[in-house]
Specification:
binds zinc ion, three-stranded antiparallel sheet, Arc Repressor Mutant, subunit A, four-stranded mixed sheet, 16% strand, 8 helices, 262 residues
């Protein structure tokens, strides 16, 4: 259990970038072995109450004033506890980034609604993006990925990190892709239909497109967790689409690390 005594909001007041704020919080906490205690961190940074419950119409809400004297966070648990943890960190990001403008008099109300191309919505979109960036930097610190960032890409690492960090597999997979030294692409699907592809800069455009069906050969065994591609990278010259549990990668030119896997 990390000691939060050294965590002071005033020490964050000169920072405005999400990654910088999250990194300074981690420095104050020192090493966190298990899940990052998002609620305790929020409470230590002047959030007077965090309420986790089932709500209608929003993922999360931050009730505060323009001076950010204190705040109350509401996080919807309808999509699971891990999602709620992420929401707490997201709302804390709004609270700590004092340039973020509340969506109404009461504070911030965050939904998954589509964005419109108005100036107001562009600002809202930027703020949401920054709050998401803060949340992932806080809940999935780079240090946790260091041991496997230069090993051959393996979704077993993603699964273990997801459990260790108490973070969704999807969020963990995207962070893993982002921090891995090799170029990696992840294909996310629902019921065999491609949702999106997340890939490293320079990774070739994927052969699979949004809303197309993944080949049955790739989907075989996914539901039982026995997909033969679970551990094996797909050759980048292949045209096979992947379930999200697989990764498509180009091996790094670096030598495989000899340290223990994460
Ligand atoms: Zn938000």
């Amino acid at each position: 259990m990390p000691d939060l005594q050294n965590l002071k909001r005033v020490d964050l007041s000169d920072l405005h970038q999400p990654a910088q704020i999250a990194n300074r919080i981690h420095r104050a906490l020192s090493q966190v072995e298990g899940p990052v205690p998002a609620v305790r961190i929020a409470r230590a940074l002047d959030i007077s109450q965090v309420r986790l419950d089932k709500f209608d119409g929003f993922e999360g809400m931050l009730l505060t004033d323009r001076r950010r004297s204190d705040g109350v966070i509401l996080a919807n648990t309808c999509r699971g506890d891990r999602r709620a943890r992420f929401t707490v960190a997201h709302e804390l990001g709004h609270f700590l980034m004092e340039r973020h403008v509340p969506s109404d008099e009461a504070g911030f109300r965050c939904t998954a609604g589509d964005m419109q191309e108005t100036r107001e919505m562009q600002r809202h979109f930027r703020q949401e993006k920054e709050a998401n960036r803060f949340a992932i930097e806080l809940l999935a610190p780079g240090a946790a990925f260091k041991a496997c960032a230069n090993l051959a890409p393996d979704l077993e690492h993603v699964r273990k990190l997801s459990t260790r960090l108490d973070l969704s597999k999807e969020a963990t997979a995207r962070r893993y892709r982002e921090l891995h030294e090799a170029q990696v692409a992840m294909v996310f699907h629902r019921n065999g239909l491609v949702r999106y592809v997340d890939r490293s800069d320079g990774f070739p455009p994927p052969s699979v497109k949004k809303d197309t069906t993944l080949p049955a050969s790739v989907l075989t065994g996914v539901s039982s967790g026995t997909c033969p591609n679970w551990r094996s990278p797909i050759p980048r010259t292949g045209s096979t689409a992947l379930p999200w549990q697989s990764c498509r990668c180009r091996r790094s030119t670096r030598r495989r690390a000899t340290g223990s896997p994460c």
